[in-house]
Amino acid sequence: NSVSFYQIAKVMTTPVVAVIQFYGFGIHLHNHLKLALTPICLGVILALFNDIQVNKMGTIYAICGVLSTSMYQIWVKSKQKDLDVNAFQLLLYQAPLASLMVLVFIPILDQMHTSGNVIGLRDIAWTFQLVKWIFLSAILAFCVNLSIFLVIGKSSPISYNVLGHLKLCVILTGGYFLFGDNMNFTKLLGIAIAFVGILMYSYFKFTIKDGWESYQKKIEVSTEYEQVAVTETEER
């Protein structure tokens, strides 16, 4: 698929997160926040719609990616609440496990999707320069992951998605002004609509609770109940 389709698939993460939060965790998103998310998603889709290229296998991958990303973002938030840990502690536990999982699948998937002029890992000439850039990439990836845990931990998965949409709008706008990228009326209109939605969401977010407070109360009540049950058992 094209990069534009990938970006549009990422947009679908926002409503999917809202649905999973509601049905899986009982977290209700305020109607005003839903209202603000509508122009954000529609605006980004409109800004990217002209460059879409889609195929069957890419669509399947996109659906799997949206579902897994949505659950991942929700777990980043819920596990910090459930385990009463901060972003650094959760990432310290998650990162080694994720690295082992990726290490197992890299040799398989790399060769499976290597074709044409693309060189696979087995055929790469490992030089000091290459290792240096890979190491730098790993450091940047750690910073990105840490920022994800911090932003979601301090706000919510929905807010993190809105931040991602803002980043995309800034990239599209910056590409036009700094590098002379193509900017037609449809793309400009989409960016403008998305910016309006982002401003609406930011305003409502500071005045309305997003539902995770109620989830926190459930965790606290459950913890208190477990402590009481343990105390009663010990007394017996």
UniProtKB/TrEMBL annotation:
The keyword Transmembrane applies. It is a multi-pass membrane protein. It is found in: Membrane. One of its GO terms (cellular component) is membrane. The chain crosses the membrane at residues 12-29, 35-52, 59-75, 87-109, 130-152, 158-178, 185-204. Keywords: Membrane, Transmembrane, Transmembrane helix. Its main location: membrane. Residues 2-202 form the Sugar phosphate transporter domain. This is Solute carrier family 35 member E3. It comes from Hirondellea gigas.
